[in-house]
Amino acid sequence: AITPACHAKGVLFPQSFALTASPGALRSYAKAYQDSWFKSLFVRKVDPRKDAHSHLLAKKEDNNLYKIQFHNVKPECLDAYNELCEDVLPSIHADPEYPCELVGTWNTWYGEQDQAVHLWRYRGGYPALTEVMNKLRQNKKFMDYRNERGKMLLSRRNQLLLEFSFWNEPVPRPGPNIYELRSYQLRPGTMIEWGNYWARAIEIRQQNQEAVGGFFSQIGSLYTVHHLWAYKDLQSRENTRNAAWQRDGWDEIVYYTVPLIQHMESRIMIPMKTSPLK
Fold first, then answer.
1. 166: which of 77, 149, 217, 236 lies 20 to 30 Å off by Cα?
2. Tell me, what's the pLDDT at 101?
C-alpha cells in the first residue's frame, strides 16, 4: 500500500511521489488535492457492468494475446543466458509456422537485478497460444534451450495479458532506447475506472512518442497493469515526465488514479541485441 511521506499546506503526499517529484509537480499535486474535494462530490460513479472488463477494455479489431515472462538469472550466468536467448528466440519469431511474435526482450538495468523480461504477442488469442506451445514441445532445439535455460535460472514467472484499446499496438522501433516497464497492482474492481482515466491520460503522454504499449493481466497476478515506455536516456525520461505536469488535466488524472493502486514498480530495461524494440 502507498504510505504517507509528508504534509504541505494540509496535503498528504504518497511516499514514492514525494521522494521523486519535482517542486513544480508537488505544487501541481497540492493544487489538485485542494481543489478536488469539491469536484469529487460530482464525479460520476462507475456504472454496474454486465460484461467482463476484458471485453470492455481490450481492442475489438484484433484478437491478440500477450505473454510477459520474468526470468531471474543467476548473476554468473547472465551473459550465457543472453547468448542462449539470442540464438533461439529470434528463430521462433521469424518462423511462419508459429503464430507468435517476439515484441521485445530486455535485461533490467534499474529495478530487480540480473533479470530478463520477454514480451510475446500471439495473433489469434488462446488458440494461437495453444498451437505454439504444442509445436514447441516437438521442437528439439527449443526443448534443449529450455533444459539449458533451467540451469541458469533462480526463478521465473509469467502473465497472460490483453492490450488496452486506447494504447497503440507495440511495433518495432529503432534505437538506441531505454525502456521503462511500470507495473501497477490495482485494487480489485477498479480496472474499468483505471481504463476510463488512462484513456484520457494517454493523449497527454503521446506527444513525444514515448508510449509503447499498455496491457492488463488475464492469467497470473490479476488486476495488474503494465505500461511500457521508451526514452532516449534517463534524462530524456525525466524531462518528458516533468513536462506532463504542464499539460491540462494530468494533475487531476494522477490525483484520481493514485488511490486505485495497491502497489507499483518501475523497471528500467536495456534491449537485448535481437529485440525488435531497440
1. 236
2. 96
- Domains in the chain: ranges and CATH: 64-271 (3.30.70.100)
Contact indicator for 68, 159 with CB cutoff of 8 Å: yes
Number of neighbours of residue 162 by Cβ within 10 angstroms: 21
Cβ partners under 8 Å of residue 46, min gap 6 = 192, 193, 196
CA distances from 55 to 7, 50, 112, 252, 269 (A): 41, 10, 33, 27, 31
Q: 242, 142 in Cβ contact below 8 A?
A: no
Predicted structure pTM score: 0.80
- pLDDT tops 90 at residue 25: no
Sign of CA dihedral 129, 130, 134, 137: positive
How many whole angstroms separate alpha carbon 128 and alpha carbon 138?
Answer: 16
- Calculate mean pLDDT across residues 80-99: 96
C-alpha–C-alpha distance, residues 94 and 80, integer Å? 22
Distance CA 47, CA 209 (A): 33
Contacts (Cβ under 8 Å, ≥6 apart) of 29: 11, 13, 17, 21, 251, 254, 255
Q: For residue 260, what is its C-alpha cell?
A: 486505485
If residue 112 lies in a helix (H) or strand (E), which one and from where to where?
Answer: none
- H or E element in which residue 93 lies: helix 78-94
Are the C-beta atoms of 40 and 139 separated by less than 8 Å?
A: no
- Pair 57, 192: CB distance under 8 Å: yes
